């Protein structure tokens, strides 16, 4: 499918076709239990069909990363909102009428009040343990500081709800869907319908910007809608309501963290222990990737002669989780960076000084093949730009004085965080490789075939210009197309295997090889070259989990009105080791969007579910967009690095640390709100 023009199909919700049927779910009203009885009215409106799990027989599941996930609940219900029935109807009114007329009787099980209240009964899906000691075993001493932190779920916000349109003809199925893993959509539809690959065409629909919320769950919609289309020989449109999408689509998994550390007078760690649990909802097929990514951060970000890591993923009676930008690193960095800021306060030292004494500088030199230590440069530049050290010391002095007889009307706080973004996942023997194929029949034109979805017209332009610059041709003579064919390499979602920058680097590798072959074999012969993300891993001599890392640091400045405790986020400053930036305007936009989403994650009100309606999702906790300044810092390597995810790891800890300093409280979890700031008591030491 040619994508050079950028003329994608319409949003799924806008597609209309004469004679099509609307599809929707009847969802479970209980959190956990058994389905006792389903009572469907005998006289359904004309053209209405109701499908149960038994209608799909042995194919009532999709397979994602070797995990089987049911399409419709058969006997057991594992979370509130799990699909039980699929209903198709000629009109939305008929669909609503039938949905309201069906009765389902359940036998409900008792549930825990909160995923954080008790771990008893939770199923451990994956666990990792790691211990490291340099030299002699250190003497058993009490840690300098012990802390716990937890992070909430994070919603996927996008204007267009998840949905699929199946255009049925006897000759083929056209699957128009908003998905970041169309290859998996095609494999799923082929399995559920039994159709050969040449009779299934997957076409990505228009999609609003997301932070990776449409990975594997669109395949469930595609499977069920395709099954109904083939059974009824009708085109099917299945689009979730905004309420369904917010409540039941995948979310960033909540996490619970325990961290303790011992520190020497030199400010260097003598011991560092991490224990964390991610609660993955009823289904999550990438538990290994999630836990190993968090453990990767725990193992390599800070250095200690004694290091212990225990990480696990547990199931919970909640809707399935999904991947977000950063996989599991944003939750990890929130806990770790909050801990570092708390430790700096306890030792009465600068947060910058504490980090420079303990950051694993050698690791970042090795993974990025650089000679210099990047974090000292980033932190020095950030300190100069924000005047962090002076402001932090001044606000700490005010905090220690606590209140005076006549307090000021506005109190201030400043927070710092550091983080890295891991690029190019090296796991599962290339199962999630990205693929780029380049072909040419003459020296002036080239066709690039990718197995990844470019997020914007700007991204497509960058990819074309990269090939054109290497080959010495005009970007107008470079065409882009998707490849979801059966003979294409089995690639995974771009979130797991790479990113926009990874694809761009593969395009440059293909172009360089094509240029060399032209010089060797002649300029007007047919040439085809192919590269996968595993081709980038040869440089990873130490076999790290990732092939490179982007480094970054952030400062957030806040003010709080003394009488009302109203929070105002004044400014956010980020400095990022970005390698080479292909398009600075696009890069800034991605980072700014991530900053705003991160603030919403950290400040949204806990009563968010009461604020949902069919057309609007209200974002409480942020009344105005703060000033956002982004500083790009080029590294020695000169190749592209991912930058779109790092803001999710940087912002929450810097923000809550700034708020904590302003109100003289040790905060330990998100979200924070004006009401909570007003009512919060002293945190336990």
Structural commentary:
There is one protein chain. The protein is an alpha+beta fold and 685 residues long. The chain contains 16 helices and 25 strands. The protein has a seven-stranded mixed sheet, sandwiched between helices. The chain has a five-stranded mixed sheet with strand order 9-17-16-15-10, with helices on one face. Strand 19 (435-442) and strand 20 form a beta hairpin. Helix 2 (182-193) packs parallel to helix 3 (217-232), helix 11 (457-471) packs parallel to helix 13 (500-521) and helix 14 crosses helix 15 (646-663). The longest helix is centred in the last third of the chain and has 22 residues, at 500-521. It is globular.
List keywords for this structure.
single chain; 685 residues; alpha+beta; seven-stranded mixed sheet; five-stranded mixed sheet; disordered N terminus; disordered C terminus
Task: Give the structure's gist in a few sentences.
The chain has 685 residues and is an alpha+beta fold.
Main beta sheet: strand number and arrangement?
A: 7 strands, mixed
Structural class: alpha+beta
Shape: globular
Can you tell me the residue ranges where pLDDT is under 50 for at least 5 consecutive residues? 2-7, 113-121, 605-621, 681-685
Count, helices: 16
On the 0 to 100 scale, the average pLDDT is 84
Helix content class: 25-40%
Share in β-strands = 25-35%
* Alpha carbon gyration radius: 26 Å
Query: Ends: how far apart?
Result: 59 Å
Draw up the topology in text.
Elements: E1 21-27, E2 33-39, E3 49-51, E4 61-64, E5 67-70, E6 76-77, E7 83-89, H1 92-101, E8 103-108, E9 124-133, E10 145-151, E11 163-169, E12 172-177, H2 182-193, E13 200-204, H3 217-232, E14 236-239, H4 242-248, E15 255-263, E16 269-279, H5 287-300, E17 306-314, H6 329-347, H7 351-358, H8 361-368, H9 374-386, H10 388-401, E18 410-425, E19 435-442, E20 445-450, H11 457-471, E21 478-482, H12 494-497, H13 500-521, E22 527-532, E23 546-561, E24 567-577, H14 584-603, E25 627-633, H15 646-663, H16 674-679
Parallel strand pairs: 1-14, 12-13, 16-17, 20-21, 24-25
Antiparallel strand pairs: 1-7, 2-6, 2-8, 3-7, 4-5, 9-17, 10-15, 11-12, 11-14, 15-16, 18-23, 19-20, 19-22, 23-24
Helix pairs in contact: 2-3, 5-6, 6-15, 11-13, 14-15
